[in-house]
Amino acid sequence: MTGMQLDPEDERILAGEEGETRQKMLELLVALGKVFGAERLVPIKSAQVSGASYKTIGKYGLDWLTSLDAKAVVPAVLNPIGMPRTRWEEMGINPAFADKQQAVVRAYERLGVRLDCTCTPYYLYSTGYGEHLAWSESSAVSYANSVIGARTNREGGPSALAAALIGKTPCYGLHLEHNRMPQVIVRVQGDTRDWSVAEYGALGYHAGKLVGNRIPFISGINPDRDQLKGLGAAMAATGAVALYHVEGVTPEAVKIPFDISGLETIAVESEEIKTLFKEIPVEAVAVGCPHCSPAELEEIARLLTGKVVTRPFYVFAAQGVINKNTKIVDSIEKSGARVFADTCMVVSPVMEQYSSIMVNSGKALAYVPYMCGGQARIGTIEDCIRVATE
Ligand code: F3S
Prior knowledge:
The chain is of the alpha/beta class and 390 residues long.
C-alpha cells in the first residue's frame, strides 16, 4: 500500500490506533520516504528539532504545534529559541515576544521534547559513530555526520518532530553508506598551521559557495573539533553541505578507503580566506555560533581576565554546558560580557537593533545580514575580545 516495508506497529499507527497525531506524523514520514525512494524506516537514536524560535515560526507554527497530541519516544532536543528562557528580560526581549516564545516552548515540552534549546546537542548527549539520527539544524547535522560519523539527513522541523514522536525516520540519503562518498575535492593550499575557529569558519563560508550541495573531501588542513564545528556550520550556511570529509581527520575519511580519483578538484588559497577579515566598525560582538564548547568558554574567560567590555558582548552556549562550567561563566560575566543560553545572534530579535555585529563564525557572517538585517564582520576570538574591550 505504501511502497515501503512497514512493521505491524507502523501499520497500527497508520490505521489511527495510537491517535491522530501519531497517525499524521507517520503519514508524513512515509510520504517523505516515498518521495526520496526509501525502502524502509530506520529506528533513530535521537532527534534535534528546529522551528523553535517564534521569530521564525510565527503564529501558524505555534498553532500547528499546539494542535498536536503525542510524546517523543526517543531523546529529542529543541533548537535555539528567540531568547534565553530565564534571562530574557536582561537580554532586552520585548514581553509580547517573550509570551509567544514561552507558548512555543510549552508546546514542545508537552510533546516531550527536551528544552535544551541548542544547536550543539552532542555536548549534552552521547552520539556515536554509525548511529541513525533525525536532526534538523544544519550545523548540528554537519557535525553529527562529519565529525562524529553518525547518519542524518537535514530534516525540516516537522519531519524531525515526526521522527521524534515515532522513533524512526525514512532510510534514504545520508543514512545509506553509498550516499556518503566524496563528490568533490577541496584542496586548501598555503600555510594553515596558525588557523583558529574563525579562519576555519571563513574557509567554510568560502568553500560552501563553491561546492553547493556536494560532499567535499578537503585536504591540506588539520582542524581540531571546534574548528571542524565552525568549518561545517559555515559550509552548511553558504552551501547545503550536510556531510564533509577531511583527509586524515574526520572518522569516515580515516576508516573508509574512499576512491576520489576522477573527482573535480577546487583549489583554495589560504590567503584568499584572509581577505574575508575586513575591519568595519561594529556596535556589538557576539560569539558562540554554533554554541560554545567548554573549551571555547574557557578560552574566552582567559582572554577576558582583567578586562572590561565597552560595548555589548554576547556569548552563546547550551544551558547544560553553562551549568557544568559556572566558574568560567562567572569569570566571563565579571568583564560585563553576558553568557546566554537557549538562543543565539541569528534567531534572537534582540540582535536586529545593531547595524553591525562582529562574530568569529563563518555561519554568522553569512546569516547575520540575512536574518538580522545588519552588517557582519568576522574576526578571531582575540580580535573579538579586543574590539569588545577597546
Ligand atoms: Fe546555532 Fe544559531 Fe549559529 S542555531 S549554528 S548559534 S545561527
